[in-house]
């Protein structure tokens, strides 16, 4: 049976409705994605330029982060800069994220990995116990080839979210460092963010 074809105006109306739905869903997705709390700091200067360290290419991509002291064994995601100029974060509470515009763990410079803490609804997050670490504790990063880079914690500090992050993302001493970032402090319901950032500074372990 041949069904009657809808008039042209009806077709245009249907196309317009479908286009509106696609645009609406797209804006909704972007809004929800940008609602994630940032663990790190704005990295762009007033001119919108981000100064990033150069990278060597002899190291493999990181795969897992292990911190025996606080029972962390997490998959490493790769992130860059978010739309607000800060280092992006992993999607969920159980993984960590390596800033892939900077050095890889084990390369000269400061490699940076962030992760969530204080996740909503009381769900356990990977860096909930990061504050329990102390100077001298060990951190391990395994790469995709099975090689492990070992780091020793040197210092733990808290920062205001808008603080100068140059000491977190850069170093000039020619050594390899690993810095871990998460949120800490009080939760602000209005800004949907914590009041401070906790940063763990670690140095590559010398043999």
Would you list the SSEs in sequence order as H and E? HEEEEEEHEE
CATH topology of the largest domain: Sortase, Chain: A
Residue stretches low in confidence (pLDDT < 50, at least 5 long) are: 1-11, 27-35, 44-55
Strand order of the main beta sheet, please?
A: 1-2-3-4-7-8-6-5
List the domain count as a whole number.
2
Biggest sheet architecture = 8 strands, mixed, barrel
Total of helices: 2
* End-to-end Cα distance: 81 Å
Helix content: 10-25%
The number of strands is: 8
Oligomeric state of the chains in view: single chain
Categorize the overall geometry: globular
Q: For the residues shown, what is the average pLDDT?
A: 78
Quote the beta fraction. 25-35%
- CATH level 1 name of the largest domain: Mainly Beta
Give an overview of the whole structure.
It is built from two helices and eight strands; from the N terminus they run αββββββαββ. The protein has two domains: 35 residues; 143 residues, Sortase, Chain: A. Strands 1-2-3-4-7-8-6-5 form an eight-stranded mixed barrel. The N and C termini lie far apart (81 Å). It has 207 residues and is an alpha+beta fold. The N terminus is likely disordered.
């Amino acid at each position: 049976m041949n069904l009657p074809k809808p008039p042209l105006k009806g077709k245009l109306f249907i196309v317009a409705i479908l286009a509106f739905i696609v645009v609406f869903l797209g804006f909704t997705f972007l809004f929800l994605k940008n609602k994630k709390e940032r663990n790190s700091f704005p990295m762009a200067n007033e001119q919108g330029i981000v100064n990033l360290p150069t990278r060597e290419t002899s190291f493999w991509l990181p795969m897992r982060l292990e911190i025996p002291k606080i029972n962390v064994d997490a998959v490493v995601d790769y992130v860059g800069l978010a739309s607000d100029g800060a280092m992006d974060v992993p999607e969920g509470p159980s993984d960590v994220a390596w800033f892939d515009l900077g050095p890889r763990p084990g390369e000269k410079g400061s490699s940076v990995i962030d992760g969530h803490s204080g996740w909503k609804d009381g769900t356990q997050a990977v860096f909930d116990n990061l504050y329990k670490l102390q100077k001298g504790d060990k951190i391990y990063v395994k790469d995709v080839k099975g090689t492990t880079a070992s780091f020793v914690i040197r210092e733990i500090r808290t920062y205001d979210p808008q603080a100068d992050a140059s000491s977190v993302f850069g170093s000039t001493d020619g050594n390899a460092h690993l810095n871990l970032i998460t949120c800490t402090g009080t939760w602000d319901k209005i800004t949907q963010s914590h009041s401070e950032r906790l940063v763990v500074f670690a140095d590559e372990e010398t043999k």
